[in-house]
Amino acid sequence: MKVYVDRNLCDNHGQCAISAPAVFRINSEGILEYEDDVDGSLRNDVEDAIDVCPVQAIFIRDDE
Amino acid sequence: MVAGGSLGGLRTVEQLRAHGYTGSMRIVGDERHLPCNRPPSSKGVLSSTASLSETLPESTFRQRTSTADAQRSLGTKTFCSNLADRVVELDKGETVAHHGLVVATGLFARRLDTCTPAAGRFVIRTIDDSLVLRARLRPGIRAVIVGAGFIGCEIAAAATALGCQVTIVEGSSGPMENSIGRKLSDTMKPLMEDYGGEFRTGRVVGLLTALDQRCVGFTLDDGSQLAADVVVESIGSLPNVEWLDGNNLDLTDGGLCDDSMRVRGATRAVAVGDIARFPDQVLGGDARRVEHWATAGDTAKIAAATLVADLAGQASPAAVTPTPSFWTELCEVRLVGVGSPGAATSVRELEGDLGHPARGVALGYFREELLAAVVTVTLPSNRQLHYRGLVATARELASNLPAFQPNPTRKREDQ
């Protein structure tokens, strides 16, 4: 499962790092870092992260 | 049957599917658009020049495939209901029978209590409201914002940035005081004044003045006059509960729920979002509504699990109380809060100095010696997440404290 964050939208709120800490984290500068290739077992966590993002910047791109 | 077509309703249908519900779903909401993200309505939308057709795709929530078969009725209101018989009547006369009900009809903007013509007076609740107001915010016009909560302050900041002459009338002593307390409010006030907003605090609106069927200003309670080209009423919101009348529910301030989001006094009915008045198992005390954006998603998860269990006649999952969280950005300052600042008996800096907010501050809100909330000021979110963890831990301890009794709901502006 491919995860994509639109950096034009991302405001580094960090809510995603609470929902899916295995995928998203905020580094010591306060900037988002994330895994873009994620095991399908984490889908629920990533969907939760999508939901809680205040600027709706997170997307899942399923493998075709 | 989901009454309410905004974020709370949307998140609940998603969560019903996630919790294994496979039956049909009907969503009824009075807005004409698919659910939009509301925060930009008082933030970015006011400052942008994009048209509705350009703004809508950016603001509209993505639809999940799991909810694609839900039947959506836009621009339709729930008119009345008989919860015992499980029927809801819609404003167009249709009767909808259902097995389970989600109450997600949210809030409507309070208006000043006046018979003055509505022309010249604005509120923001929807993206449409935002675009209507934006068209009037021209450089040099006199905009008077009544009410300095989060929304009022955001509108004031946007109007100031657009070159309007902005006056903010607030009954308390400063911006967002009811939400973030006196200390931080006192810090934010001069920042907002530096950007050009003028405060009239401790004042309430008296008589409005009309000219040619338009509101052109008003008198304050000290007798002073304020002329206005645009009046924005940001004096809070009231729950859309009228359609629930007659069911013997407690609707004194939204719909009263138990700690699993069930509507008290009904069966197979749950409430979500800012219409839901639910108990805080951590702080105890009276049930209360939490009007934050995050509440819709947080309560939808709990309510969907409850409703799926109730429909199946199974035991409901253990009740959890969501940790409140909110954010706003004003005058290049981002405030991020977690917990319940209103429960605090004392406030002190955990990091930084409120005398220098631009350098970053974390403000701790203590109830007795326990951390009830933290609000960070211009700190990066990794610091905010750190404090969120502290508040979450403290909340586990807080269940041993005597119950917190919130202030009775009071009107932010006396009439």
UniProtKB/TrEMBL annotation, chain A:
Entry keyword Glycoprotein: no
Database matches in InterPro entries: 3Fe4S_ferredoxin, Fe-S_cluster_ET
Pfam families linked to this entry: Fer4_15
Cofactor: [3Fe-4S] cluster
Keywords, alphabetical: 3Fe-4S, Electron transport, Iron, Iron-sulfur, Metal-binding, Transport
Gene3D superfamilies attached to this UniProt entry: 3.30.70.20
Molecular-function annotations in GO: 3 iron, 4 sulfur cluster binding; electron transfer activity; iron ion binding
Purpose: Ferredoxins are iron-sulfur proteins that transfer electrons in a wide variety of metabolic reactions.
Protein name: Ferredoxin
Protein's organism: Marisediminicola antarctica
Taxonomic path: Bacteria, Bacillati, Actinomycetota, Actinomycetes, Micrococcales
